[in-house]
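Quick bug: Methionine biosynthesis PLP-dependent protein output formatted oddly.
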Amino acid sequence: TANGVCNRLLRFSVGIENSNDLIQDLKQAIKLVKEGVRI
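Here's what came back:
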């Protein structure tokens, strides 16, 4: 783990996006993780 970064790290950055867009993006990402899809 170089510089304390491991393969289980989740980086989350939020700007001025619409809150509904962020929620939908998170739901989609969680669904992919549950299905075991690797990005």
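Actually, after a second look the formatting is fine. The chain has a mean pLDDT of 79. Closing.
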